[in-house]
């Protein structure tokens, strides 16, 4: 043995010892390392369990009332509670705490790890203690409900389970009803724009007529028929030219008279003659007697009544003047002799009188007698001499003045002739200017009309394009029919023919004016010149014809040939010299002769007068009838105006919230919808249209988010549903008896700080509850007005009949003003209907989204104000027939027990559908026919062929507008209505229109009242006949569908609601193709199934549902605000709730996530053991404990 072991020397033992030591050390590390890892897991589990425990400290009131989870306790309270949980989990001996479920679990785990197992005490494998002050707990600020995204997520989590149930069947059908509203409103806006422009055509047509026939002035045709009738103008020109002819003759004579004959009228001038024999001098005037005769002849002729006699007097006066000049010296000698004689006479008398003064009466009596006798004889001689002289002097004075008299007389005569010519020409000039102005103004207005027709066509094309963009269905068909009936215009060829007439009339007037303005007598412009005689004389003297009178003075008295000069005056070449004399004829050098005088020759005008006058022009006769006052009945017009005002006033009813006195201040200060522009009585039509367009635009803008809601915005619907199911609204007390939240907590003023105004606050955010409710009412009114307007324009034939009758009473039945007036009246109907809808909605009742003939209530029995007022008053007391509007509500409640009741509801729906189908089909065919009838009655020219062509054209357009591609009962009945009318009623309509046309053309004409009665009677009877012929077919087809639905209901009760929904959907789709375009994306229900949107014709909405939709739409654009306002309400309600108060609740402190951090020490077994060192001594490889840390986040 020794030998055996001697050689080993302990090397193996040493080796094994070293190996074992290393293994022991490794094992120690592994054991302590495992303890650390296990400690970390234990600490993590303790932390996670503590966080879970922390989440149980949620606000119970928040959860119970609003279904939301958040921790509202302070961090210190949570920290204290959770520290106990962690310590106990780690195995520390801590004081007792209230044990809940989580606490029990923690104790179980703790005992399993370090307590007794099967009654056998075990060692404390993990000796862990939590470090003092290491626990830190935070409620994460980013997770508080004051953050909108956190609150949204909480709401959506809650609604995932509640949402599908609250949405139910029909909600997307209702939303889908609004989908095409924007496009339909766009069509309506384009229609109103077209009609406004069309009404301007009416005004422009009247403007053309008024331009041709100004009030208080002679019209275009009257001018041509009277003063400017060619025969009258020819006669007038003859008269004018006669005056001119005589004026030229007179001017010739006046020129002769104005020549210088050397006449000195001052013959009483002394000469060197010294004689005193006056009689001898008188006897020396040998020609005085003859000259006196000539003078008297001249004066007598000058006083004559015609130019020829006056010319003779003038020429004779020249002869007398020449004689005067010839004997002028003799007359001067006579005057001198008389002067000498008088001087001699005075001298002799003075001598005798002086002698007599010297004589004595007694002594010189005889001489005195002799001188007295001599003086007497001398005086007697003087008297005789003076008398003889005075007589001669008078004759001589007359001779001296006769030339002046002749000059004045001839000047006046010429001026009178020219004045008479000018006066006559002025009359014709005024008439021609009037004719020219009428033609020019008429042409200008015609051009305005043609320009407007371009605008109208563009507006009509835009309207038609928008219609083509609509989804196929009854609305599109009706709007297309409306377009067909209104897209009328004037035959521009007929307008051009009237313009051609006016152009010819203008040319005729211009021809007359040109000839008038150029008419001249010896270069004197008759129409514009002044001082005619003097101007003509001057022109004559300066012309080549002046020589005809210039030599008269040189011939002398004895050689003067009176007759030669008279002949020269009467036949002067100036009369025919076209260079200086232009008579009033149609063209210079034209005309014809009437005896010695020129006259117009208007034979060409006479032959073309039918192409100048407009009285037989087709278009002129059309606008003449348009302006004929007998087209309107003042009494009927006044009554219709009153009816229109009643409708507009009914729509101006003010709806405001009552009994809302709540307030909640908010950060955003609130919003405001677009104002609804009121339109009262007396408003101009364009103002009504503009307001309606503005209001409907605002409503469409408000509904812009519908498309987004229908294409994947399920969460928006959940948010709006949460808002309306967890908060109160204005009509909650009328809509829901004992209304509660989804969590079954009652709504009340004690629990809700903005009771009856919370949903409205969520929508608008204004502090005042009443303000928010009023805004909501205003918005609902706008949407209802939009929907009612769309229906009124496209649906009810009775509205069309009555509005057309009222429009013709107001606007007259001629022209293009009827459509816009009718539209204004239809807008009035929509306003009145909307006011009635609001009355019902604010009482918590439901109103059909799209109206039908059954659900529209404002239906007057006539066009009078009394009838309209009666209809409005009746509507105010109407109670909604809920039986017609419960189809989808009944579907939501459908069970085996309610199946029979549901069948009755389906039957009611089917019967209503039959009425709607038939009414709509007949309306689509008759509406364009009715308006075509009014248009054709006022046609330019009665023409049966034209009527037939127009009716055929209208029917063709109607046929092309009908939706025939759909396999629906509505399409089938509409096609049948078209075929029936075309085959059975077309010829009757043509006959009726032609009869009314002839009456319109007759002298007696047709009144607006007559027309209304004729049209109303015809179309009422035709409508009734058509409806009767169609109803049986429609009823039969719909009954088949009803039976199919009933069969599916009777198949079994498995998935009864789903089967019924599918059956109803198929039924509605078969009836009218539905109200949507069946876009897949638009029909996804919140639960992932397809929505049922076809046939929502009887769907209704109440105030609550409108508010729900508004909030959903608003959340599309302003989700953050919507959520923030809900948060404010939650905080305010919890703080003041009477049922379950949470007075200290704050959104900013209500966290949904916790962050926990902690540290613990774990005892080690081997890390602290001393290890021997070579050379002696030992070394500790680690500590006796190890520090562990934990940090975790957890939330709901």
Overview of the structural elements:
The chain is mainly alpha-helical and 1196 residues long. Strands 1, 2, 9 and 12 form a four-stranded antiparallel sheet that branches. It has a two-stranded antiparallel sheet with strand order 3-4. α10 crosses α18 (532-542), α12 packs antiparallel against α13 (307-326) and α39 (1008-1049) packs antiparallel against α40 (1056-1072). It starts with a helix and ends with a strand. The chain crosses the membrane at residues 12-31. Residues 663-675 have a biased composition (Basic and acidic residues). Keywords: Coiled coil, Membrane, Transmembrane, Transmembrane helix. Pfam families: DUF5702.
Major sheet: 4 strands, antiparallel
Ends distance: 79 Å
Number of domains: 4
Radius of gyration equals 60 Å
Tally of individual helices = 41
Unreliable segments of 5+ consecutive residues: 116-123, 881-885, 1075-1097
Give the helices and strands, then pairings:
Layout: H1 2-6, H2 11-55, H3 60-66, H4 75-90, H5 101-114, E1 128-130, E2 136-139, H6 148-167, H7 171-177, H8 181-212, H9 220-225, H10 230-257, H11 278-284, H12 288-302, H13 307-326, H14 328-358, H15 365-468, H16 474-486, H17 492-518, E3 520-521, E4 524-525, H18 532-542, H19 547-550, H20 556-559, H21 562-570, E5 592-594, E6 597-599, H22 603-607, H23 618-626, H24 634-651, H25 685-702, H26 706-710, H27 714-726, H28 732-735, H29 758-764, H30 769-794, H31 797-811, H32 818-841, E7 847-848, H33 865-876, H34 887-892, H35 899-937, H36 944-961, H37 969-984, H38 986-1001, H39 1008-1049, H40 1056-1072, E8 1100-1101, H41 1103-1136, E9 1153-1163, E10 1170-1172, E11 1178-1180, E12 1185-1195
